[in-house]
């Protein structure tokens, strides 16, 4: 009898320890990408980076399709029902999608201003996250009426626009992460910044 009571107590302790370990692992997984609010890039920094990106996209479009159209003597139209409009849209979306995924969350504008797109739920950006944020949401936000979705970033704690909400992403300031690392702190969000020196 005494032996069975002792076994029951031990099994309860083991179950409690396993439960605590599982909860700690779950909490750690949830906390990995939770940054302090001052790490997130504000609306104006992101706007200036976006304007630099638009200049780059304009240069790429002019150097490729625009040049071809000028040489051939065709009229250019930004309407989506023309080949020029579709090709311009494809360059616009490909620029953001490919650079964000293949350049560790940075376009040329973000590199100039020291910004980086990060996932709040993944260690690194997956193709699914990038396609949702950079293709689907940018296509929707490209129209003038829906571009108000970018303004929301000025008023949210994590500085997220509509596309960030759908993809669970945001944009952080890289120098802030570097400063936190140089103070010798072991941040909870270190997994995404193994390469940041």
From TrEMBL:
This is RDD family protein. Pfam families: RDD. It is a multi-pass membrane protein. It is found in: Cell membrane. InterPro entries: Pra-immunoreactive, RDD. It comes from Vagococcus acidifermentans. Its main location: membrane. Residues 41-167 form the RDD domain. Keywords: Cell membrane, Membrane, Transmembrane, Transmembrane helix. The chain crosses the membrane at residues 43-69, 81-102. One of its GO terms (cellular component) is plasma membrane.
